[in-house]
Design goal:
Elements (H helix, E strand, L loop, with lengths): L6 H21 L9 E2 L6 E2 L1 H17 L4 E4 L4 E2 L5 E9 L1 H6 L5 E8 L2 E9 L4 E6 L4 E3 L2 E2 L18 E4 L5 H14 L5 E3 L4 H9 L5 E4 L4 H13 L3 E3 L11 E4 L3 H11 L7
Parallel strand pairs: 3-5, 11-12, 11-13
Antiparallel strand pairs: 1-2, 3-4, 5-6, 6-7, 7-8, 8-9, 9-10, 13-15, 14-15
Helix pairs in contact: 1-2, 5-6
This protein binds D-MYO-inositol-1-phosphate (IPD).
Length: 274
């Protein structure tokens, strides 16, 4: 750990800024909010509120830690010299936010020397704050959480009784493949959920609100905080064939189900786009 870096202090700052951004997003959302810009496809949108939230968080970090690196979904890409990097999704679930579906949040992960050590996912409309410090467990509103649903009774849930969350990319071609895979998975599981926020999906694994999650195409800012929170809650988080979680594929579930889900996805060559 570099000198003058205390993960607890980093988490405290992350929690404060996620809370401030969350309040900004609730209180100052224009009634006639529209799309300010598009990115990878016409449905991959940015609103002015994504930009304002990222600005608030970046300014808040730099006011206290001017030597840190920052990666943000809406364009922040700053080099640093301290060994600390902040990975920010100023609104994860932007389409939900635009449509006033309450499943969206602010996600801030903090890396030290390339390893995520602290993370917060703030879900204002559910009044839920998920936090984790590496090695110190995961929490929702300050209470410890575990990655087992009530139905699992603390044991691995077999695939056929698992409630599985997933997400879809913005490119039509990739979506067609994702649709095929979900169509084949649906008869083999309890059910599927598509919530619309990868960070919240990972936190839902962490608190046992779903049994597992997988997605192709989730980006570092979608994953950074939520992956640490899910791991610290006892879930396994990774990619296929033993790889690390990445935008190629991210899978999260308690041990046993994780392997079953990976086996299904590997058998369907799920990390493909055609
Ligand atoms: C998206 C959400 C969605 C997931 C997409 C993400 P954004 O993030 O997390 O659930 O399926 O892969 O891009 O664009 O709302 O920040």
């Amino acid at each position: 750990m570099p000198e003058n870096v205390n993960p607890k202090d980093l988490l405290e700052l992350a929690v404060r800024l996620a809370d401030e951004a969350g309040r900004l997003l609730v209180q100052e959302r224009p009634r006639d909010l529209g799309v300010a810009d598009t990115k990878s496809s016409p449905t991959d949108i940015v609103t002015v509120m994504d930009q304002r939230s990222e600005k608030l968080i970046v300014e808040g970090i730099l006011a206290e830690r001017p030597d840190d690196a920052i990666l943000g979904e809406e364009g922040s890409d700053r080099q640093g010299t301290s060994g600390v990097r902040w990975v920010i999704d100023p609104i994860d679930g932007t389409v939900n936010y635009l449509y006033e579906i309450p499943l969206w949040g602010v996600s801030i992960g903090v890396e030290v020397d390339g390893q995520t050590v602290a993370g917060v996912v703030e879900i204002p409309m559910l009044r839920e704050t998920f936090t984790a410090l590496r090695g110190d467990g995961a929490y929702r509103n300050g209470e410890a959480i575990r990655a087992y649903s009530a139905q699992s009774e603390g044991k691995p849930v077999p695939l056929e009784r698992a409630l599985i969350a997933t997400g879809f990319g913005y490119a039509a071609r990739r979506r067609a493949v994702q649709g095929e895979i979900v169509a084949d998975l649906l008869p083999r599981v309890r059910d599927i959920r598509r919530g619309g926020s990868a960070a919240l999906d990972l936190c839902s694994v962490a608190c046992g609100r779903v049994d597992g999650y997988f997605e192709r195409g989730a980006k570092p800012w979608d994953l950074s905080a939520g992956a640490l929170i899910a791991q610290e809650a006892g879930a396994k988080v990774g990619g296929l064939y033993g790889a690390a979680a990445s935008d190629e594929m991210t899978v999260a579930a308690a041990e046993g189900l994780f392997e079953a889900l990976c086996g299904f996805l590997e058998g369907h060559d799920a990390a493909r786009d055609s």
